[in-house]
């Protein structure tokens, strides 16, 4: 059940009411218009709901795509996004404290993870955030920015502390936590940044695929003979990892998949410290 009136006008990421698994699982995009009208779309299961103040929630079948009266989506990173990325800093301050609190390995400075001390959230909240460059897996073209609002000990107290830039394409993109030059024989991938940086304690270089859908579509890369997949231990994560692994095996590449009792490798590290 979505508490539609709890959200201010703007873009939000929330747990899907259809396939959501609680906690940090926020696969649904929620757009609230200033008049109160709203639309929700899950990027994993394609669940769609509309909300109108006078009618309430109206669920729609997944095969029907909502028509959104928004500006045209950028196919590459906008000029504003490029300027903001240049304004971001190498990892330090609150961002570094956050990564240490999550027991993450720290990526090299020439990777695509930075931070900014003052980033505005659609809710109006302003604070420090990790900022990751999302670039095309095959062409390296910048596509978007992925922001995670953080504190020294965890994510900021927001319904959606992780958000990509609005109206920017993500399809075919990933977060290169290690630069291309570091990827020679093998590569490790995971859905989330924190999970990838947990894998990095035992295997480098690593990239983040952002979500299960992007992992499932992760292409075979020329010159890379080995792929290590840090799979999330849930249905969507295991299915995506399996789909990706089959593609690489069919191409004659070596593939290793992690298995753990917890949902992901970062959960394993945090539970070990508890």
- Seen as an oligomer or otherwise, the chain set is single chain
DSSP strand tally = 15
Structural domain count:
2
CATH architecture of the largest domain: 3-Layer(aba) Sandwich
The CATH topology of the largest domain turns out to be Dna Topoisomerase Vi A Subunit, Chain: A, domain 2
SSE order in H/E notation?
EEEEEHHEEEEEEEHEHEHEH
**Which stretches are low in confidence, meaning pLDDT under 50 for 5 or more residues running?**
60-70
**Which structural class fits the helix and strand makeup?**
alpha+beta
Q: Total number of helical segments?
A: 6
Mean pLDDT: 88
The main β sheet shows up as: 6 strands, antiparallel
Judging from the principal axes of the Cα atoms, what is the shape?
A: globular
Proportion of β residues? Answer: 25-35%
Determine the N-to-C terminus distance.
Answer: 33 Å
CATH class of the largest domain: Alpha Beta
Helix content: 10-25%
User: Gyration radius, to the nearest Å?
Assistant: 18 Å
């Amino acid at each position: 059940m979505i508490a539609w009136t709890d959200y201010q006008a703007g873009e939000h990421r929330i747990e899907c009411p259809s396939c959501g698994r609680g906690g940090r699982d926020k696969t649904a995009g929620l757009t609230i218009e200033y008049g109160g009208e709203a639309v929700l779309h899950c990027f994993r299961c394609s669940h769609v709901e509309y909300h109108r103040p006078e009618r309430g929630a109206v669920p729609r079948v997944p095969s029907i795509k909502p028509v959104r009266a928004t500006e045209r989506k950028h196919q590459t990173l906008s000029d504003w996004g490029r300027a903001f990325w240049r304004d971001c800093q190498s990892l330090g301050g609150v961002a570094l404290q956050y990564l240490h609190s999550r027991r993450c390995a720290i990526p090299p400075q020439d990777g695509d993870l930075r931070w900014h001390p003052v980033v505005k959230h659609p809710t109006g909240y302003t604070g420090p955030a990790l900022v990751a460059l999302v670039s095309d897996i095959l062409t390296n073209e910048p596509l978007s920015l992925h922001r995670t609002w953080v504190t020294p000990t965890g994510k900021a107290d927001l319904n959606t502390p992780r958000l990509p830039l609005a109206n920017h394409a993500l399809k075919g993109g990933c977060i290169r936590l290690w630069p291309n030059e570091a990827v020679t024989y093998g590569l490790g991938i995971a859905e989330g940044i924190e999970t990838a940086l947990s894998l990095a304690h035992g295997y480098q270089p690593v990239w983040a695929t952002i979500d299960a859908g992007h992992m499932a579509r992760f292409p075979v890369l020329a010159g890379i003979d080995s792929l290590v997949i840090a799979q999330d231990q849930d249905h969507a994560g295991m299915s995506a990892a399996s789909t990706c692994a089959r593609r690489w095996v069919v191409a004659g590449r070596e593939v290793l998949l992690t298995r753990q009792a917890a949902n992901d490798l970062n959960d394993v590290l945090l539970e070990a410290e508890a």
